[in-house]
Amino acid sequence: MASSTIDSRLLRDLQKLLGRDAVLYKPEDLLLYEYDGSVEVARPNCVVFPRTAQDVVGIVRLAGRHDTPLVGRGAGTGLSGGAIARRGGIITSFARMNRILEIDAENQRARVQPGLVNSDLSLAVEHLGLHFAPDPSSQKACTIGGNVSENSGGPHTLAYGVTTNHVLALEVVLPNGELLHLGAGAVDAPGYDLTGLFVGSEGTFGLVTEITVKLTRLPEATKTLLAIYECVDDATETVVEITARGITPAACEMMDGWTIRAVEDYVHAGFPLDCAAVLLIEVDGLREAAEYEAAEVADVCRLHRARDVRVARDARERDLLWKGRKNAFGAVGRLLPTYYTQDGVIPRTKLPATLRRVSEIGDKYGFAIGNIFHAGDGNLHPIILFDARDKRQFANAVAASDEIIQFCIEVGGSITGEHGVGMEKDRLMPLLFSEVDLDLMRRVRDVFNPEGLLNPAKVLPSAKGCGEIHVRPVAATVGSAPA
Amino acid sequence: MSSASTLISTRAAEIAGARNVIVDPAALDAYAIGGMIPSTAIRAESVEQIAEIMKFAVAEKLAIVVCAARTKLDIGAPPRQYDLALDLTRLDRVVAYDPGDMTLSVEPGIPLHRIQSALTEHRQFLPLVVPFMDRATAAGTIASGIDSPLRQFYGTARDYVLGIEFVTGDGAAVKSGGRVVKNVSGYDIHKLMIGALGTLGVLTRINFRTFPLPAATRAIVATFGDAARAVALRHALAGSPLRPLVLEIVSPRAAELLGGKSLASNDDWSVVASFAGTPTALERCERDVRKMAEQNGAAAFTSSDDEPSLAAPDRTSEFPAAALASSAAATILKLSVLPTKMQAMLDAAAKAVDAAQMQWAATARGVGTIYFALLPSERNEDALARVSRATNEIFGRCAALDGNATIPWCPAEWKSALPIWGPERSDLGPMRALKKVFDPHGVFSPGRFMGGI
Lengths: 483, 453
Known about the structure:
The complex is a heterodimer. Helices cover 34% and strands 19% of the residues of chain A. Chain A has 4 domains: 8-96, 2-Layer Sandwich (Uridine Diphospho-n-acetylenolpyruvylglucosamine Reductase, domain 2), CATH 3.30.43.10; 100-217, Uridine Diphospho-n-acetylenolpyruvylglucosamine Reductase, domain 3; 221-329, Alpha-Beta Plaits (2-Layer Sandwich), CATH 3.30.70; 336-418, 2-Layer Sandwich (Alpha-Beta Plaits). Chain A has helices at 8-18, 27-30, 53-65, 118-125, 144-150, 157-160, 194-198, 232-244, 257-267, 287-303, 315-326, 328-333, 351-365, 391-410, 429-432, 435-448; strands at 23-24, 46-48, 70-73, 90-93, 100-104, 109-112, 130-131, 167-173, 179-183, 207-214, 216-217, 221-229, 251-256, 277-285, 308-311, 338-341, 369-374, 379-386. Chain A has a 7-stranded antiparallel sheet, sandwiched between helices. Mean pLDDT of chain A is 91; it is low at 464-483. Chain A has 16 helices and 18 strands. In chain A, helix 9 (257-267) packs across helix 11 and helix 13 (351-365) runs antiparallel to helix 14 (391-410). By secondary structure, chain B is an alpha+beta fold. Chain B contains 15 helices and 19 strands. Chain B has helices spanning 3-16, 25-28, 47-60, 112-120, 138-144, 151-154, 157-160, 190-193, 227-238, 252-258, 279-295, 319-326, 342-355, 381-400, 428-438; strands spanning 21-22, 40-43, 64-67, 84-87, 94-98, 103-106, 124-125, 161-167, 173-177, 202-209, 211-212, 217-224, 246-250, 269-276, 300-304, 331-336, 359-365, 369-375, 404-409. In chain B, strands 15-12-14-13-17-18-16-19 form an 8-stranded antiparallel sheet, sandwiched between helices. A 5-stranded antiparallel sheet of chain B has the order 5-6-10-8-9. The model of chain B has no long low-confidence stretch (mean pLDDT 95). Classes of the chains: A alpha+beta, B alpha+beta. At the A-B interface, strand 9, helix 7, helix 8, helix 10 and helix 16 of A face strand 9, strand 11, helix 11 and helix 15 of B.
């Protein structure tokens, strides 16, 4: 089924269901849908654009009748190949289901369609003093449907939680065409927590057609600090000490000197070029609380030998600092044709040891590895720069990346904190889970997706032990940023 | 002793040792659920023993109820069959606690108060303050899915349980999630275990995220002549920049049952709120709440700093326990509605129960969850008929308000006559299918869960 042509009867049926303008099938039109933000690539046979949940039911039924794989897709900014048609078939793009259906400011709820862009929701409720808290770095492009599928995080999830903490109810279409309502707008829907199970299932259980989310009140005050270090260990020790003092910052991000230089050259955020690391720390809440915590944090930074601690004086300065952080991956992409970003998680106290190990691994394979990460929750994004045209370099990049992940697991961490398993890390799942664990996951998936037609060959390693690795063409490398 | 029960106790002794097997009828009374008493109780001491027990149960077609401190076994329907009580109280250790990482891994049978004392040493805590706090265990709290007043700020267990290890109905030891605060490796199967009442697996290890214990907290109680004004203060607070840890509304009778020293002592409603922060921040919180309370016609206002722990001020978390102790036939409804519909829900419930000529008491959490206790003075057919009438009326109203309604507690012999799981849900099909995956032979508490699962 992975051929690039499409069964003409299926094509006709899809066009009849959705209209001719809602089905793409020419190779040149499909090119864009071969990629997401990861290094993976695979071509779908067609892309369809439903407008309603009933359209989605129709698509799912047709796919079933024609025994054709089906993959849901938001903006395609994912970083693990979740929205790529690994086995070909139909990509269901939610680009035309992008409306806000209801805003209930008093109850701090919104009902949205899956194709709504993450930051569009926050913008729409800002005048009400509210926002949608999960904020992946790709938030200006990524969709809430994609966030739900991947259980996306972002810098501010340290205090506010990841996507699953903000989803109350889902409308989903199962691969058998059944339309289901999970959870409820009111809290504590009785029964098993199917909403919690669905969020983060990476599009392998069902297609999400409507989402009810919590909206969070914007803080009264926000303080953003930039602490500058001569030594990476001082920065990582600062992170450990801040939490030991009972402070949970809204965000606590770290960039190493190598990354800072790449970023500063591009964004001009005012990062010092000669330092070893910076911490970008944000505290928020009541005016009194934010001021007190900012002073405490600054104190801890200085105790741990920060060369300088700057506090953003206004919203413009704050935005500039964040622009530097959120555009870091775009900046790095200017340096070499390809980069590979990992998403390992470690217990926070293992940060100093982990960074030393990452540096050793870089030396061993001869790569520059940049480090940029959510330090507060131990979620690393080491960036390995390489040239994918060089087969040997590519293999080494994967090997280096695997060694980093292996170390994360050894210190009690995980293979992915927010990017998802997708088709990038399914082969690594056995490092974390036993065959019995994986078998249970497989059987849970089969409850919803028994034929395996929905987003096949994702999350769980195939029985054969699939080791395929895709490289995208060099021309289309950069563009999306991890959280 | 019948030959079947001899077989069970003999095999149980082989697996866990005779000292961990209980067959004495008097001692087994402590494991009764709705008048059903198992023939044997077994205290497991390891995951391997639990897996062995499950395999034995499957082979002999036994029904097992998993339990620990047994404070929440009455939630849900009594099991259809009950041969063996699997007691987890011997598995009660802290397996790992990393204060720097703020993660905690415990065995299932550990009492919550012991967790709290271990964490207090490092100025941390777990925001689980639940009914029967003096005995409640980690496993029972997670399996029952019971909420804590601290959910106003910290969310519920699903927001801070990082991973769970459990043994399935066919004896497989499995895990989901992990021990780091951020993790999307694999499906979030552990979320299914929260609130599943032990119908999907035996919890063997629970990993939590812990939280810093605030340096100082302040509890504030404002009292009002009617529920409407109390609810109005809740709305004012929710619309303010303040971030209360606890936000609860307590009915006059509930205040009396709880006996909290700051709660209203007449026919007034109380609003209990607590805050954390520096002295300056706490002053600000008190000032703002006082102003909001006055604007909404508060009758009285008190504040206290003398409870630095994060226990719910005035023990509002113990409301279900207090209500159960106050009536022979206490029937406690859990009604969750959108916050703006709390007032309508409270009014409708009070009206229905007044019409049935019964006492009632209620607490309502700021997030929209109301515990509404019907307190009949008798436990007989007539009382059941009146409770049933009132409940149907209330559930109808709750459905019209798009709310969720269940009855976590009522007399066991009333359970089959009352809609304890609320109206049938459209997602029951996948729930049944999931039960088959986790417990293919139907060993765990058959019939205890929603839809007869």
